[in-house]
Design goal:
There is one protein chain. This protein is mainly β. The protein is about 0% helix and about 50% strand. It has strands at about 5, 10-15, 20, 25-35, 50-55, 60-65, 65-70, 75, 85-90, 95-100, 105-120, 125-140, 145. The protein starts with a strand and ends in a 21-residue tail after the last strand.
Protein backbone atom coordinates (compact mmCIF):
# COMPACT_ATOMS: atom_id res chain seq x y z
CA UNK A 1 0.00 0.00 0.00
CA UNK A 2 1.22 3.49 -0.86
CA UNK A 3 0.08 6.84 0.49
CA UNK A 4 0.90 8.68 -2.74
CA UNK A 5 0.73 7.52 -6.35
CA UNK A 6 2.67 9.80 -8.70
CA UNK A 7 1.50 9.28 -12.27
CA UNK A 8 1.85 12.79 -13.64
CA UNK A 9 4.58 15.34 -14.09
CA UNK A 10 5.02 17.79 -11.20
CA UNK A 11 4.19 17.46 -7.49
CA UNK A 12 4.95 19.38 -4.30
CA UNK A 13 4.87 18.26 -0.65
CA UNK A 14 6.08 19.88 2.55
CA UNK A 15 7.31 16.74 4.31
CA UNK A 16 7.91 13.34 2.76
CA UNK A 17 7.54 10.72 5.48
CA UNK A 18 4.97 8.42 3.86
CA UNK A 19 5.20 5.84 1.09
CA UNK A 20 4.96 6.86 -2.51
CA UNK A 21 5.00 5.01 -5.81
CA UNK A 22 6.29 6.57 -9.03
CA UNK A 23 4.69 5.05 -12.12
CA UNK A 24 5.77 7.23 -15.04
CA UNK A 25 9.02 8.65 -16.45
CA UNK A 26 10.03 12.29 -15.91
CA UNK A 27 8.18 12.70 -12.63
CA UNK A 28 9.29 15.71 -10.54
CA UNK A 29 8.75 16.14 -6.81
CA UNK A 30 9.53 19.38 -4.94
CA UNK A 31 9.94 18.93 -1.15
CA UNK A 32 9.90 22.09 0.97
CA UNK A 33 10.62 20.80 4.51
CA UNK A 34 12.11 17.33 5.14
CA UNK A 35 12.40 13.76 3.91
CA UNK A 36 12.37 10.89 6.42
CA UNK A 37 11.71 7.50 4.86
CA UNK A 38 12.69 3.87 5.37
CA UNK A 39 13.24 4.20 9.09
CA UNK A 40 11.33 3.79 12.31
CA UNK A 41 10.62 0.07 12.15
CA UNK A 42 7.65 -1.91 10.97
CA UNK A 43 4.85 -1.16 13.42
CA UNK A 44 1.64 -3.19 13.60
CA UNK A 45 2.16 -4.74 10.18
CA UNK A 46 2.44 -1.43 8.33
CA UNK A 47 5.08 -1.21 5.66
CA UNK A 48 8.00 1.14 6.14
CA UNK A 49 7.63 4.48 4.34
CA UNK A 50 9.55 4.34 1.07
CA UNK A 51 9.96 5.81 -2.38
CA UNK A 52 9.29 3.09 -4.94
CA UNK A 53 10.25 3.87 -8.55
CA UNK A 54 8.46 1.37 -10.77
CA UNK A 55 9.70 -0.22 -13.99
CA UNK A 56 10.15 2.38 -16.74
CA UNK A 57 9.59 5.25 -14.30
CA UNK A 58 11.96 7.98 -13.16
CA UNK A 59 11.91 10.56 -10.37
CA UNK A 60 13.68 13.88 -9.86
CA UNK A 61 13.50 15.39 -6.37
CA UNK A 62 14.24 19.05 -5.69
CA UNK A 63 14.88 19.33 -1.96
CA UNK A 64 14.47 22.76 -0.33
CA UNK A 65 14.43 21.46 3.26
CA UNK A 66 17.53 21.14 5.42
CA UNK A 67 17.58 17.37 6.05
CA UNK A 68 16.98 14.12 4.21
CA UNK A 69 17.08 10.73 5.91
CA UNK A 70 16.75 7.55 3.86
CA UNK A 71 16.87 4.38 5.97
CA UNK A 72 17.20 0.79 4.87
CA UNK A 73 14.97 -0.04 1.89
CA UNK A 74 13.72 3.55 1.89
CA UNK A 75 14.42 3.91 -1.82
CA UNK A 76 13.48 1.12 -4.21
CA UNK A 77 14.50 1.69 -7.83
CA UNK A 78 13.15 -1.29 -9.80
CA UNK A 79 15.36 -0.63 -12.85
CA UNK A 80 18.52 -0.46 -10.70
CA UNK A 81 19.66 2.33 -13.05
CA UNK A 82 21.07 5.43 -11.36
CA UNK A 83 19.69 7.69 -14.10
CA UNK A 84 16.13 6.97 -12.92
CA UNK A 85 16.51 8.74 -9.56
CA UNK A 86 17.97 12.25 -9.43
CA UNK A 87 18.19 14.22 -6.20
CA UNK A 88 18.94 17.95 -6.29
CA UNK A 89 19.61 19.58 -2.94
CA UNK A 90 18.92 23.30 -3.12
CA UNK A 91 21.25 25.66 -1.16
CA UNK A 92 19.13 25.20 2.00
CA UNK A 93 19.69 21.39 1.93
CA UNK A 94 22.61 20.79 4.31
CA UNK A 95 22.38 17.15 5.45
CA UNK A 96 21.68 13.82 3.74
CA UNK A 97 21.80 10.52 5.64
CA UNK A 98 21.57 7.17 3.86
CA UNK A 99 21.63 4.34 6.39
CA UNK A 100 20.92 0.69 6.99
CA UNK A 101 20.44 -2.41 4.92
CA UNK A 102 19.45 -1.14 1.50
CA UNK A 103 20.78 -0.40 -1.95
CA UNK A 104 20.76 3.11 -3.43
CA UNK A 105 20.66 3.61 -7.21
CA UNK A 106 20.66 7.27 -8.16
CA UNK A 107 22.46 10.58 -8.36
CA UNK A 108 22.84 13.30 -5.76
CA UNK A 109 23.71 16.91 -6.54
CA UNK A 110 23.68 18.84 -3.27
CA UNK A 111 26.83 20.98 -3.06
CA UNK A 112 25.89 22.53 0.32
CA UNK A 113 25.06 19.20 2.00
CA UNK A 114 27.06 16.78 4.12
CA UNK A 115 26.39 13.23 2.88
CA UNK A 116 26.57 10.45 5.48
CA UNK A 117 26.55 6.85 4.21
CA UNK A 118 26.18 4.55 7.21
CA UNK A 119 26.47 0.83 6.53
CA UNK A 120 25.00 -1.92 8.60
CA UNK A 121 28.19 -2.66 10.57
CA UNK A 122 27.73 -6.43 10.17
CA UNK A 123 28.50 -8.90 7.39
CA UNK A 124 25.99 -7.47 4.93
CA UNK A 125 27.23 -4.81 2.58
CA UNK A 126 25.21 -1.77 1.57
CA UNK A 127 25.71 -0.28 -1.85
CA UNK A 128 25.56 3.17 -3.41
CA UNK A 129 25.48 2.99 -7.19
CA UNK A 130 25.43 6.26 -9.10
CA UNK A 131 27.19 9.57 -8.55
CA UNK A 132 27.34 12.23 -5.87
CA UNK A 133 28.40 15.85 -5.62
CA UNK A 134 28.18 17.07 -2.03
CA UNK A 135 30.07 19.35 0.35
CA UNK A 136 31.45 16.36 2.28
CA UNK A 137 30.96 12.59 2.20
CA UNK A 138 31.45 10.29 5.20
CA UNK A 139 31.17 6.50 4.92
CA UNK A 140 31.02 4.25 7.98
CA UNK A 141 30.31 0.54 8.46
CA UNK A 142 30.24 -1.88 5.54
CA UNK A 143 29.58 0.20 2.47
CA UNK A 144 30.52 0.06 -1.22
CA UNK A 145 30.36 3.17 -3.42
CA UNK A 146 30.19 2.47 -7.15
CA UNK A 147 30.20 5.16 -9.85
CA UNK A 148 27.72 4.16 -12.56
CA UNK A 149 29.67 4.63 -15.80
CA UNK A 150 26.42 4.71 -17.79
CA UNK A 151 25.86 8.20 -16.32
CA UNK A 152 28.71 9.56 -18.46
CA UNK A 153 26.50 9.03 -21.53
CA UNK A 154 23.75 11.31 -20.24
CA UNK A 155 23.43 15.00 -20.95
CA UNK A 156 22.24 17.03 -17.97
CA UNK A 157 20.91 20.49 -17.26
CA UNK A 158 18.91 20.80 -20.48
CA UNK A 159 21.83 20.20 -22.80
CA UNK A 160 24.55 21.98 -20.79
CA UNK A 161 27.59 19.93 -19.78
CA UNK A 162 30.65 21.02 -17.83
CA UNK A 163 33.66 21.08 -20.15
CA UNK A 164 36.03 22.84 -17.76
CA UNK A 165 36.08 24.02 -14.16
CA UNK A 166 38.28 25.63 -11.56
CA UNK A 167 39.14 23.78 -8.34
CA UNK A 168 38.61 25.85 -5.20
Amino acid sequence: NYDYLLVGQNYQVATLSRSLYVGLPNTVLYVTSSINIGSGGNKKGWALPQIHIGPGASLTIYMAGATTSIGGSGLVNDSKEAKNFQYYGLPTNTKIDITGNGAFYGTIYAPQADLNLKGSGNSTVDDFTGASITKTTTMTGNFRFHYDEALSLLTTLSGYDAVSWKEL
